[in-house]
Amino acid sequence: MANHSQLSFQDASSPIMEELMGFHDHALMVALAICSLVLYLLTTTLTGKLSSNTVDAQVIEIVWTILPAMVLVALALPSLRILYMMDEINEPDLTLKAIGHQWYWTYEYTDLNNLTFDSYMTPTTDLPMGHFRLLEVDHRVVVPTEATVRVIVTADDVLHSWAVPSLGVKTDAIPGRLNQTSLVATRPGVFYGQCSEICGANHSFMPIVVESTPLANFENWSSSLLSQ
């Protein structure tokens, strides 16, 4: 959960998010090195003596051609690695389908006798003490901890986006199309997200809450819903 005046990411709760945070720090260090070099060159140019020397400078031309290419490679390789990791889904333990509507989500657990429910934002007047305003829902998505969950995302009306920052998940929900992603929650907890695609007047009022719980608790939860 993000805090006021927080400058960094939320705490990573999945392997993908840990990789994304590492790449973010790596890219920032590269940008810092470039900015430092440019600042040094500007300072020496402004404070040094002017020179009208126009001799050939083949060495410096080679350097300022090869060095940017090396920087791009240093950014591209780890970026492509993470991109393929995010796209790889191997033998998921559970399949969850998220359907975006104006302005709520419908979830289907296709592996659990088609367990289906709608998830609406909890109104402020009904919000229990200690819960987060505009982020809490009446029915949470519950997943087992350390299980590979395949999430199939689509929409029923307009464009939506299913995003949970601390799990490193953000997938567009497009009417008539199925997009898929995966998540692995490495620790028990409650993780908050929101629709990240402007989808109408109440775009800000369709939050996402994912609760990671041990397998035994997940089985009890699913059994209680199926018995209703």
CATH architecture of the largest domain, by name, is: Sandwich
- Rg over CA atoms: 24 Å
Order of helices and strands: HHEEEEEEEEEEH
- What's the story with the biggest beta sheet? 5 strands, mixed
Q: What is the CATH domain class of the largest domain?
A: Mainly Beta
- Give the overall silhouette: elongated
CATH topology of the largest domain: Immunoglobulin-like
Helical residue percent band? 25-40%
pLDDT averaged over residues: 89
Total strands: the figure is 10
- Percent of residues in beta strands: 25-35%
What count of domains describes the coordinates? 2
Notes on the structure:
The protein is an alpha+beta fold and 228 residues long. It folds into 2 domains: 15-87, Helix Hairpins; 94-227, Immunoglobulin-like (Sandwich). Helix content is 33%, strand content 26%. It is built from 3 helices and 10 strands. The strands form 2 sheets. A 5-stranded mixed beta sheet has the order 3-2-1-5-8. The protein has a 5-stranded mixed beta sheet with strand order 4-10-9-6-7. Helix 1 runs antiparallel to helix 2. The longest helix is centred in the first third of the chain and has 33 residues, at 15-47. The model has no long low-confidence stretch (mean pLDDT 89).
